[in-house]
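Before the break, one more example. Copy the sequence into your notebook; we will annotate it together after we see the structure.
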Amino acid sequence: MRGVLYVVGTPIGNLGDLSERARATLADVDLVAAEDTRRTGRLLHGLGIRVPMLSLFEGNERERTREVVTHLLDGRSVALVSDGGMPLVSDPGYRLVSACAQERIEVQVVPGPSAVLAALVVSGLPTDRFAFEGFPPRKAGERRARLAGLARDPRTLVFFESPRRTATFLRDLANAMGDRRVALCRELTKLHEQVLRGSITEVLAQLGDDDHPLRGEVVVVVEGDREGPGVDMDEVLAQARSAVAAGGRKRDVAHEVAARHGVSANELYRALLNEPRDAGR
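Here is what the structure looks like once it is written out:
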């Protein structure tokens, strides 16, 4: 029988966030493929778990994927972990999961903490539509071009950034998108967790001067475009009414129509709920 690849979410800071299922999975597998074996080794040692490990990081993922797939084809079970959070989300693992899908090897996910979702829900910014952009380009020209291309995106945007480049990133963000609302989330779930909210200018002021750079892991959540071409909400609601009259469920219709027009699905759904009973179901 072939083995199973378990994609396991691990804590982003607080060990208490490790699920019981994740703990049991790490204890039961034959092998752990870890982004950093030293860091994962400390995690396993703290849990009293002894299991063989091999490294699988960005620099060796292509070669190690073949090795891990061989283990799985031989019937061994493998857990894939990153340094923290969910593997594949700005972390290695995509090639391995893709290779397992091609080989028809079973892949199971053991969900766990995510810095993306943690920052999004604590930001105070809209959560109904969002996009994760990962790390912005390091080169200034490429970074500015990327941000300019996102300037009219109505979704809330989530970025990872190096603490050393955070202030520069925020200034580039302001130049590309204006003085929007942001939330700068640092060291989430850890002892020195910090969330700064406000306009970009206000957050930069809270950061202080560049002589005292940030430390720790940083996630920046950015308000989506609210100044794009105006949307005729009467027309949007009329389209939604027609879809409901044709037999669509109000919640499903709200999400579909809102996605087409870049408006809030929750607001549209509430408007549909206030429609007369004979306007649809």
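The CA atoms of residues 158 and 246 lie 37 Å apart. The chain has a mean pLDDT of 92. Try to locate both features in your own notes.
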